[in-house]
Amino acid sequence: MRNPIVLLRARGPFVLASATGLTLALAGCATSRAPEAPANLMIAPPVAAPQDGDWWKTAGDPLLANLVERGLAADNDLACRAARLHQQEETDASASRGITGKVRALVGRDEAPERDAARMAWAYAYAQARADRATEVALAYVQVRRLQQILVLRTERLDQFRDNAVIAEFRRQAGLVTAIDGGLGNSMAGVVDADVSATRARFDAARGNLAALTGMTDTDLLTALGEKAEVPAVSPDAQIATAADAPLHRADLLALRSRLESSLAHQKVTQEQLDAARATPEDPATAPALRDALQKLAKAEQGAQAEIASTRQSLATFDAREAAIEATATQAKRAVADARAAYKAGFGDFATLYVAEAAALAADEARVNLKADRTAALVRLRKQEGAGWSSADLDPPMGAATCD
Prior knowledge:
single chain, elongated, mainly alpha, Outer membrane efflux proteins (OEP), 13 helices
């Protein structure tokens, strides 16, 4: 899982490994017993880190991109991970320069490959944590937009129900209907008013969560959200990789590979032994540690593939559902217009008007929820397929953080 990009890191483990190899080579001039520094193990073919996996930058919603960047910058845990990664690199570099490390190399106990793999596991873990944080912020933003748009719809419907109650009262005073219509109008307005209050409370809570994730004040976030309550429509970009290869690009699986490589290096497993075990994993002669490592990696990759397949399958159903909802919403809108005109003219009853308006509201909300569900699924798919991190994240910049 080493890649050319990683090899060029100025402070990265491979540079340190090379420095260690140079030290050992010089030591070899003084003694013929110095063994050649062992190469790093590779439990699977190397995978190049993406140059730019920040999918939110091209998602088509500038506010989404801004909020994700804010969320990444405000994540203290992420900053602490970066600080610990740099601290560990300095510690390992110091150990490699020490006399103890040189002596271990001379007697055939060079720990550089083991340390290199362990550091890469931490680096990939940082990259995955960054992708996780970006996904968390994006999903929180989608939820805020969902509730904001539903709140607007319910508020507009509340105004219509109140208008219906006024019309009913005019008709009652004219002796055209009984007081029942006015009572029903006021009752329905009260019910929708309660729905509006409940939705506003959910919107406030979701907005508070997003503000906390991004380090913004509620006032600043409200200003950024504005009056236009549109759920973002993340474009369904081309797949990052085929269904079989997609998990290979995930930083969490690359971290697992590196951890397994470090463990195998600690047990003095050679690349030849590892290659043989990969070729015939069921061979009884395969060491248990090798077999267990390969099985653990295979299980993790299969789980990732199943997760991706499930999300893609759910996305495939959205188009048909959207077409059905659009047709229903169009019919409901016509029904409302006809029912209101009939009621105002004295040819319809209030119950018909209320049912038509309630159906139209349900259709509109279903349309919003479908769009939000689709966007949320696309956001999750980005992470599942390995987006959300880049080669630069394997050597993250030091930032200010309060760490335990």
